Amino acid sequence: MTGQPICILVPIDGSANAARALDFALNLAKAAPGARLELVNAQPGVGGAVSAFVNKAEIKDFHRAEGMKVLGAAIEAAKKAGVPYAHHIGVGNPAEVIAAFAKQLGCGQIVMGTRGLGSALGLLLGSVANAVIRHAPVPVTLVK
Fold first, then answer.
1. How many beta carbons lie within 10 A of that of residue 3, not counting itself?
2. Which of 26, 77, 98, 136 is such that its CA lies 20 to 30 A from the CA of 14?
3. Nearest Cα residue to 40 out of 81, 91, 83
4. CATH numbers and ranges of domains, the chain
5. What pTM did the predictor assign?
6. What pLDDT, on a 0 to 100 scale, did the predictor assign at position 101?
7. What is the separation of C-alpha 58 from the centre of its chain, rounded to a whole number of angstroms?
8. Contact indicator for 118, 127 with CB cutoff of 8 Å
């Protein structure tokens, strides 16, 4: 044990599976004194055509607004549960955004929902979950 607080990263995409993962992570955090959650939403980047006509500040504001729409219920749930949390919005490939935040924030675990989209393996795990497992520097707990 390092004596550092436990950091659990929870990707939030607005799905029912993400909500179940959040509930699981909240219970983990409540059982571990000093634990905190890092709530992350990954927004898709905009194409070159959009960025040619819309300035960077407007695009950043758009990503923030869309991310906060998705994170709102998770933030309220963490507040209600009395679990310390922070929230973050990243832009880009969801798996890469999630793995990068886990590393940057020093999280020891990722707890995320599965979606069941994509290829044959994706049907079992979800394509983003499968990619997070490959990229993440820490253990990943999947909740369905």
1. 5
2. 136
3. 91
4. 7-143 (3.40.50.620)
5. 0.87
6. 97
7. 23
8. yes
